[in-house]
Write a structure and sequence with these properties.
The complex is a heterodimer of chains A (about 550) and B (about 200).
Chain A lengths: L1 H10 L4 E3 L5 E3 L2 H13 L7 E9 L4 E8 L6 E8 L6 E3 L8 H12 L2 E3 L41 E7 L5 E7 L6 E5 L11 E7 L2 E8 L7 H5 L4 H4 L11 H16 L5 H29 L4 H21 L8 E2 L2 E2 L7 H24 L2 H7 L7 H6 L4 H5 L7 H4 L20 H23 L20 E8 L4 E8 L7 E5 L2 H6 L1 H5 L4 H11 L3 H5 L1
Parallel strand pairs in A: 2-5, 6-7
Antiparallel strand pairs in A: 1-2, 3-4, 4-5, 8-9, 10-11, 11-12, 13-14, 15-16, 16-17
Helix pairs in contact in A: 6-7, 7-8, 7-14, 7-17, 8-9, 9-14, 14-17
Chain B lengths: L8 H11 L6 H15 L4 E2 L5 H10 L22 E5 L7 H10 L5 E5 L1 H5 L21 E3 L6 H16 L9 H11 L8
Parallel strand pairs in B: 1-2, 2-3, 3-4
Helix pairs in contact in B: 2-6, 3-6
The chains are: A alpha+beta (about 550), B alpha/beta (about 200).
Chain lengths: ~550, ~200
């Protein structure tokens, strides 16, 4: 940590540092682009993965906190860039350094109205063109009259804007057409069974070949981040089940770890083991459902019945302990909500007994199938460099050869002491992404096997204060969800609710990369490629 | 399911009284019965899911809950072929006009089930700046199904309620729910939607 700081200080004397769990660099906007380039390209730093951009409104100024990760050294760093201008805040874009930044910056623009100079696509991401105000600003007018429920169809624009800076530092607004005049544009979604929710792709095609996809989101944007600012810390946990509803346990886990870190609470070993067990059970259930719905996208409905059989068995186990089938709300600050059901160990052992047989069946039925091979192999290839630059984590990133499993790279809870393999494939096609998930189910089963006979005694939840107030500061926590790395960023001023709670979902980069990897493939491949990335739309939109 | 096992018989009694207020024609009434028997046993849903509730709807279609037992398994992707839409999940501002258009595209007679807390009132997201506080602001709702998300059993119950409602309806003349929909649509005019 110290030598990173020295290195940056030597190159950028104007940078100031804030020590913390993750080193934070303050940099003026004028030097930010240079620093970003340096952080990425310097061989000893190698921060090539942009995890998220957290837009911030500190009332006296606007700004962004960039969370960076080095895939080579597994170190993290935060960079803070602020602007005091409130009327027309501008920050330099880093979209040419990390490709995913284009979309992250659009999100910040949508929520805070911060304009990113030189970003090629400065449109709103989730809200409509005619939306009044920027909702995550602290002075935003929440009254429904300000933005009533629309009765008319949304106004559409086929152009985007870019704010380009010339040599003299003058910023000029330019209009850029999204599609070429000769393009034939097909609209897919938002109501389409293969988009796995309400997502829309405006697809420019040449015959059957895809030329460009404009990904259009926000059909299930529920404003969770803004809602959290008005709630107490334990209340914010409830939304975690409703984003990626298969990774509810993982998301609870992330937020709980972040809160416990902030409060300095040490949770019992029993609670840690229970959390990990639940995470891994949920991972198996999620990958099962992925396989079932994916095959349904391909026209093979039968597979759904086989995979949901295992999923129902897992849901039964969870229901007995957590009391619900989907929105478990099981993790809480200090441990878990209630103790394991008395039959838990027996039920899990029954599941482990039938799982290998089922996985074998899935492999025989689907992976070995000649139609599946024909439709998935060598389709939608994603290289390792692109996976990192586009921030594609989780099974989709690992299928491209990027070992990005947070359980291995930044071990949390008890993952550091468990024996399991990180499955990594190098093909990067749809087939690799599918096979990897099946292989991950086996690894999850391996983790459960190690723990199920060794659940230690102890309390499942330690005593925590009735009113939870985080000390002033900032915390960031990554966990491995079912679809990739999920991050939470909390900033607190010492009050009973967060000043800013940023949720960095894995699915936004996944949906964003669709344009890149479908180019040149047939329109029917869009369904298989999109399915193999396995994004969950409420997770994209939050 | 026996009559006594239903939770809200007063409601259906009231509906029957309302419909039968002017008496029932022997011949036309028998036709009504026949048609309603057929209709209520093959209700085709529109695949329309925005979030969590949609996954429970998938579970409903799989072997364990097996909605094919009741004749509901033919989930259509096109609204023109569906009988009812189960609004499974939160409806937000951007989605609201889209949902209304899907409703307008459903073939008559059409029904709506508001599935889950979000569709009924906005649920946990009620205070949000971008969430519709109940879909009954946009479309007329036939059955409200609470839960977050409702269990598949509850979904079965709600569709059975809908089927019960269909069974007592008058197909030929008389008071029917078409007029109620007409009232609703007059209050929420279609002309304001520019397609």
């Amino acid at each position: 940590m110290a030598n990173i700081q020295d290195k940056i200080a030597k190159q950028f004397p104007e940078a100031t540092f804030e020590e913390g769990e993750i080193l934070l660099v303050n940099i003026p906007d004028a030097k930010w682009h240079d620093l970003a380039k340096f952080l990425k390209e310097d061989a000893d730093l190698h921060f090539d993965h942009l995890i998220t951009i957290v837009g911030m409104d500190w009332v006296d100024k606007f700004g962004c906190v960039y969370q960076l990760n080095s895939t080579k050294y597994n170190t993290q760093i935060s960079v803070k860039v602020a602007t005091e201008e409130r009327e027309n805040p501008m920050i330099h874009s880093v979209s040419d350094i990390w490709k995913i930044a284009t979309t992250f910056e659009r999100e910040v623009y949508d929520f805070f109205g911060i304009i990113f100079i030189n970003n090629p696509d400065m449109r709103r991401l989730f809200l409509s063109i005619d939306w009044k105000g920027y909702p995550l600003r602290k002075d935003y007018d929440m009254s429904p009259e300000n933005n009533p429920v629309p009765t008319e169809n949304e106004r559409q624009e086929d152009v985007t804007y870019s704010y380009v800076e010339d040599e003299n530092g003058n910023v000029e607004k330019k209009t850029i057409a999204i599609f070429q005049p000769e393009d034939y544009v097909v609209n897919i979604g938002p109501q389409h069974p293969a988009t796995h929710g309400v997502l829309r792709f405006r697809t420019a095609v040449d015959g059957e070949t895809i030329k460009k996809i404009d990904f259009y989101s926000g059909y299930i944007h529920r404003g969770i981040e803004k809602l959290c600012e008005g709630l107490t810390y334990p209340q914010t946990l409830h939304f975690m089940d409703r984003m990626d509803y298969f990774s509810g346990h993982h998301y609870h886990h992330a937020l709980c770890i972040a809160y416990e870190k902030a409060l300095g609470i040490e949770i019992s070993r029993r609670a840690q083991v229970i959390r990990v067990l639940m995470d891994e059970l949920a991972r198996i259930a999620s990958h099962c459902l992925f396989l079932g719905t994916y095959c349904m996208d391909l026209g093979a409905t039968t597979m759904l019945f086989y995979t949901l059989r295992v999923r129902e068995q897992i849901l039964d186990i969870m229901e007995r302990t957590c009391g619900a089938r989907m929105t478990f709300n099981y993790g809480c600050i200090g441990g878990v909500m209630q103790d394991l059901h008395e039959d838990f160990v027996k039920d899990v052992k029954e599941l482990l007994a039938v799982l290998p047989k089922n996985i074998k069946e899935y492999n025989e039925l689907f992976i070995g199938n000649v139609i599946a091979k024909g439709r998935l192999e060598n389709i939608g290839n994603l290289t390792r460099e692109d996976a990192i630059s586009y921030g594609v984590t989780g099974p989709s990133g690992r299928a491209s050869g990027w070992a990005c499993d947070v359980r291995k790279t930044h071990p949390y809870s008890i993952y550091g002491e468990l024996d399991f393999e990180e499955v990594v494939y190098t093909e990067g096609d749809s087939m690799a992404r599918t096979k990897l998930r099946i292989a991950e189910m086996e690894q999850s089963a391996k983790i459960i096997e190690q723990l199920i006979d060794n659940i230690p005694d102890g309390e499942y939840c330690v005593k925590v204060p009735k009113v939870i107030k985080l000390p002033a500061g900032r915390w960031f926590q990554l966990v491995e969800g079912c679809r990739g790395a999920f991050g939470v960023y909390i900033e607190s001023d010492g009050g009973a609710s967060p000043v800013r709670l940023k949720l960095a979902p894995p699915c936004l980069p996944l949906a964003n990369v669709v344009d890149h990897i479908t180019q040149g493939y047939k329109i029917a491949d869009l369904i298989t490629i999109g399915g193999s990335l396995d994004y969950i739309v409420p997770d994209i939109d939050r | 399911m026996p009559y006594e096992a239903w939770k809200d018989n007063e409601y259906i009694e009231k509906l029957v009284d309302e419909l039968r207020a002017n008496g029932t024609n022997v011949i036309v009434g028998s036709f009504d019965k026949l048609i309603n028997w057929g209709r209520s046993n093959s209700i085709w849903p529109l695949t329309f899911a925005t979030s969590c509730c949609g996954i429970e709807f998938v579970s409903l279609g799989a072997a364990r809950y097996d909605m094919a037992r009741f004749g509901w398994e033919v989930a259509r992707s096109s609204p023109r072929q569906a009988d009812f839409m189960m609004v499974a999940g939160t409806i937000v501002h951007r989605m609201a006009p889209v949902m209304r258009r899907l409703y307008d595209q459903l073939a008559e007679p059409k029904y709506v089930i508001a599935c889950g807390g979000c569709a009924i009132s906005g649920g946990p997201f009620r205070k949000s700046y971008h969430v519709v506080k109940g879909i009954d602001e946009i479309v007329p709702v036939d059955v409200y199904l609470p839960g977050c998300p409702p269990r598949p059993e509850a979904m079965i119950y709600s569709i059975m309620q809908l089927s019960r409602k269909m069974k007592v309806e008058k197909f030929f003349g008389g008071v029917n729910r078409k007029e109620k929909i007409a009232d609703f649509l007059a209050a929420h005019p279609e002309e304001s939607l520019n397609y």
